[in-house]
Specification:
Elements: E1 2-3, E2 9-13, E3 20-28, E4 41-48, E5 58-67, E6 72-81, E7 90-93
Antiparallel strand pairs: 1-2, 2-7, 3-6, 4-5, 5-6
């Protein structure tokens, strides 16, 4: 959940469906560096992963990179599916 200084709320999530899995695998950096600071950089980087996983046929890494004057935070999501379902992450205003 991201909350702006004026109280607007945004949620980063994945809505689960059949035959797929998407999860936040890792956070690099200190999330407190984002609190109360202007976000200077917000970037999404996505790419396929080598198929060294056995559970599903398709795999997608999605990185969300944020930077403030205090530091950087990278969120690493991994999506896996049989190739017919979304492996993406949603970021929506509530």
């Amino acid at each position: 959940m991201f909350v702006t200084t004026d109280g607007e709320r945004y949620r980063m999530y994945h809505e689960q469906a059949c035959c797929e899995r998407v999860s936040l695998e890792d956070i690099v950096g200190d999330l407190q560096d984002l609190v109360g600071s202007e976000i200077l950089i917000a970037e999404e980087v996505e790419g396929e992963s080598p198929t060294d996983f056995e559970e599903y046929e398709s795999h997608t890494w999605t990185f969300y990179k944020f930077a403030t004057r205090k530091g950087y935070v990278d969120l690493r999501w991994l999506g896996s599916s049989n190739g017919y379902y979304s492996e993406g992450v949603s970021f929506c205003k509530e």
